């Protein structure tokens, strides 16, 4: 434990370069602008508390830190370093720009420096994992700058898909600080562990940066990758200490323990200074346009954010606009560039888009332009959110709620990183959750951030990693506890599927192909689709296979580097989408239809006469058409049919039923039953991200007036990932609070018959028909009367949640009905989430220079 703290209150000592209140005032000075601000939250500045570094840190490291301008650490940095030196796995969960990187770098560099004095020059190594290539590249730059006074004692190198092959052997033999990502660890390092043996046997630390992003299916995969890493390290005689950095989160030690499979100590008392933050909630105005069924339509968050980014650039305010989608980032950039060109042509070149899917050289050029100040404004996806050290930003625009409060504060924290005052603006989209939040600011500012949900025991996740582990080193009985309680039951199934074979006391991988290729840890569901320009054959980028049906179908609008393309053909067999440059005045949105069947009910809780259930389901989904929406206004111009194959998904779901008596009490007749259920389903999906660390697009739903398995009117909400992601389970445990908020969101909306702010969904395969707003309110009112009281229980990942008092025993051992072959990631059709109704139915001490 840290014993060296001293608490001296020192002022922040940094004057604001901009007055965030004044900047907001200028943004709100235009016609009708002031009325768009529904709430302004003032987060006061905070003074810092210093400490001293542990005396076990090498003097050369402390001198290097001071040379970088850091005289004393903040108290939380010193405490985390002490834990690391003690051999404790530790998670630092503090705010953005609080110096988490230095907290783990100082003990790591000190240990590497000592290791460099070993006879082979590499007596200690460290592995750094980042969720994105950009973050690893940025961290490598930082490590090189900080360790420059140490000469070649610290030899950092990035090892990812962009690393030239001529550099890779040098990295394996001589680098002592390797920066990579979970994907490369899974596919490149672990399967080739004999070539990494000298590195692994000296491994002292594993740094996991931005660990709060490892949630859901991706987080569950990473958890199993880390267990495979620990197993190989043990084989080579190493037992590394895990150092994790997280945004502020609930129960960070619990989540970090679930991720690593080890006990973790948390350091969450943020002792860094912070400048004033002015945080505004902004609701775009209603337009004269009418949406589906004549519903009122608000101006899009994309158009509103583009206007605000333009105004900020004109003011010379350095800003980033965070956007949820690649397409949105490109569109905001294009609109802002056009409007800036009308003011000053030179300004148009100082705004750009940044997103995943760019080629490596494009990403690096944009990062450098932002670092140098050449860019004034950037429209970015979360590829930039994750920890890149962008100093000097004055404002952050957030186009639509990013799905979790943790992500919201992470994005807002990108401004004011040098301690100056900053402005953050959340621009609401026209959907139930965003509308609820801008009118209920207490849900954002008075509630703690969410806990991280992941489920490493998901058989669909675990099975392919057991195969990969067996291919690395044959699995033995001693490995069962490492991989979790589901392992013992899965191994015989994998053996029956001829994926593994038991010989004497171990299970061996039996196939010629690489076991690591059985699964995509990011849940892409197959080979990425290459987006190719038809006329030139130029590769523009890639799209995840799971998103191809909805984003690069024939006729879809595809944006890349500010240019607009139309998809001419989508070849699913060869995984190629051919596109041609075009300038259509519209965007496209895919629509799909869904059916669902119950495979197994794990838990059933009475809600009055109704029932709340949780279990396994099979979902069949098909993209059937796409809408063309006019840019800026969102007006629907038309619908085009598509002929794409259906996809199936076996996953986890929560569902609720109502009886005839409850329908009578709610005055729901057969004519409006479908619309009432459908409306409640849409709104509940929209509100679930408040209660689970999910995105609306991570989940799907189906509502059915008479479901053949329940024989009652039923609403389903399911995880959009094979085997589940933990979101539906969280929904089950928080159902009363979740559905109460859903009812409130519908009832408080000012529209008459339903709109995108309450019950209409942008991805509804049934064209938002039928919907009945008042019926949904009455139905939820009656249902909630029978809801049992909730109590604190350990939910997914051991995180406390609210559970119904009358809930039965915890779900029994998990079974996946698709069979071991599907569990192991063998090719099979999968589908993402949807919404809709179903009408009825060897090294020396001399280190050569890096190539």
From TrEMBL:
Alphabetical list of Gene3D superfamilies matching this protein: P-loop containing nucleotide triphosphate hydrolases (3.40.50.300)
Transmembrane among keywords: no
SUPFAM superfamilies per the UniProt record, alphabetical: P-loop containing nucleoside triphosphate hydrolases
Superkingdom field: Bacteria
Pfam families: DEAD, Helicase_C, MZB, WHD_HRQ1
Domain Helicase C-terminal per the UniProt entry, residue ranges: 308-460
CDD domains per record: DEXHc_Hrq1-like (cd17923), SF2_C_Hrq (cd18797)
Keyword Nucleotide-binding: yes
Domain Helicase ATP-binding residue range list: 81-267
Name of the molecule in the record: DEAD/DEAH box helicase
Lineage, top ranks: Bacteria, Bacillati, Actinomycetota, Actinomycetes, Kitasatosporales
